[in-house]
């Protein structure tokens, strides 16, 4: 009988006492890939969230590039070297992308005919607002970074790896230079511990018992009057993870017994010493689920790029095949495969495509996304520096009269494009994202 999860490989050979070929069937294991997942398990709402995130990240990258320039302007041709950072590969034109957001970016030419890019007044106001929100978020971000250090095996993490979480935690762009030194009671920057290691590390200074409590514990076991976590010691937990399966997933009843057994199994707290756990054991895997649940709970949007999680497998004592574990527990996590990098979501944090609890920085990003859209039919030529002073109150300077800047005519999209998202492997267009957001 065929075994589940196996596929036949037929091998023909000739026996010694017969001229007829005999057929031997050998069963081979088939690897699980995210792309091979049934479409019934895809969550359309979270796929939309992925596209929104990718779009707003492009805008934030451009904001940061312009902020780093002396006068917050840059020649358009110089933006080409930032394609990878902006995630806008060829043959897409950066000028076309900028023209789709005239309320955020404006283009104009100098006397030599060089096209420059700058931010509108509205964009500058948004950037200032973000800086204020990041500053207010500093204490909470410091707590989450400290708790990451508390979960790590060596109680220290490479700054280069923490940098992957910068936007997810709401850290400032120069956090390695200034921000990490603002909380000496929590952590400190130390030099490399290995030869030929040029990386700097962030090391835990003070262990906080009240922070060694998982977000799930804080939700399920609220602090009663007169009690606190000041003397809490992390150990074994028996808390069930909140589950939320795709509405189109009809096979849950087949695995209800295994799910119930998993939920009842005890596991070690992410803040406890995991050196005694055997890799590959049930307890080891469930603790890894708890670690990923905790890390996702720290993030602003309750989502992370899966590559960032795999970078911390050794530090957080997690299995090598982390993706398989994420896919296995689809009631806790959802993995979106749209784009070049996969994203993992914490299911319980979302109601459809909306976060249940929104951080002020998330609300700010949604505000930015409202200003992203196509420019309409009225086009204006790119103005010169002399014209710019007279037209700075306009929403944007659009169009182009030079050969290298082709005009872009944006056609309206059909209303049913979003409903076909799960059948489309290409990235969504910018207008499509905005329509989904406004709806």
Uncertain spans: 1-31, 374-380, 384-439
**What percent of residues are in strands?**
5-15%
Could you give the distance between the termini?
A: 51 Å
Q: Which term fits the overall shape?
A: globular
Count of discrete alpha- or pi-helical segments spanning 4 or more residues: 15
Total beta strand runs: 16
Q: Give the strand order of the largest sheet, numbering strands 1, 2, ... along the chain.
A: 3-5-4-16
Structural class: alpha+beta
Sheet with the most strands, sense and barrel status: 4 strands, mixed
Radius of gyration, Cα only, in angstroms?
26 Å
Overall pLDDT metric: 78
Keywords: Hydrolase
Domain PORR: 41-374
InterPro entries: PORR_domain, PORR_fam
GO molecular function: hydrolase activity; RNA binding
Features:
439 residues, alpha+beta, 4-stranded mixed sheet, 3-stranded antiparallel sheet, globular, disordered N terminus
């Amino acid at each position: 009988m065929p075994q589940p999860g196996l596929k036949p490989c037929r091998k023909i050979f000739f026996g010694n006492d017969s001229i007829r070929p005999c057929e031997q069937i050998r069963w081979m294991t088939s690897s699980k890939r995210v792309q091979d997942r049934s479409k019934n398990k895809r969550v359309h709402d979270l796929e939309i969230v992925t596209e929104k995130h990718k779009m707003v990240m492009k805008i934030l990258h451009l904001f940061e590039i312009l902020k780093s320039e002396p006068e917050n302007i840059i020649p358009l041709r110089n933006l080409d070297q930032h394609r990878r950072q902006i995630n806008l590969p060829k043959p897409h034109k950066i000028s076309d992308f900028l023209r789709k957001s005239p309320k955020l970016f404006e283009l104009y030419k100098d006397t030599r005919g060089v096209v420059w890019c700058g931010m509108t007044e509205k964009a500058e106001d948004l950037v200032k607002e973000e800086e204020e929100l990041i500053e207010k978020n500093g204490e909470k971000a410091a707590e989450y970074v400290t708790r990451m250090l508390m979960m790590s095996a060596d109680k220290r993490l490479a700054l280069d790896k923490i940098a992957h979480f910068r936007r997810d935690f709401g850290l400032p762009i120069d956090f390695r230079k200034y921000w990490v030194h603002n909380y000496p009671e929590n952590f400190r920057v130390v030099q490399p511990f290995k030869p030929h290691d040029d990386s700097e590390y962030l090391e835990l200074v003070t262990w906080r018992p009240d922070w060694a409590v998982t977000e799930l514990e804080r939700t399920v076991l609220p602090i009663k009057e007169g009690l606190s976590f000041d003397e809490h010691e992390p150990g074994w937990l028996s808390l069930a993870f909140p589950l939320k399966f795709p509405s189109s997933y009809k096979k849950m009843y087949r695995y209800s017994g295994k799910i119930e057994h998993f939920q009842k199994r005890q596991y070690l707290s992410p803040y406890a010493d995991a050196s005694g756990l055997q890799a590959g054991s049930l307890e080891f895997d469930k603790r890894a689920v708890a670690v990923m649940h905790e890390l996702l709970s720290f993030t602003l949007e309750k989502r992370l790029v899966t590559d960032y999680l795999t970078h911390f497998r050794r530090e957080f004592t997690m299995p090598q095949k982390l993706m398989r574990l994420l896919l296995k527990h689809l009631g806790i996590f959802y993995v979106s495969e749209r784009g070049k990098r996969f994203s993992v979501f914490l299911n319980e944090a979302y109601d459809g495509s909306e976060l249940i609890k929104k951080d002020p920085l998330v609300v700010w990003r949604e505000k930015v996304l409202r200003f992203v859209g196509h420019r309409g039919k009225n086009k204006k030529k790119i103005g010169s520096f002399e014209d710019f002073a007279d037209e700075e109150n306009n929403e944007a300077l659009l169009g182009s009269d030079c050969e290298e800047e082709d005009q872009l005519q944006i056609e309206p999209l059909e209303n049913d494009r979003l409903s076909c998202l799960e059948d489309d492997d290409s990235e969504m267009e910018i207008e499509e994202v905005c329509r989904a957001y406004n709806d």
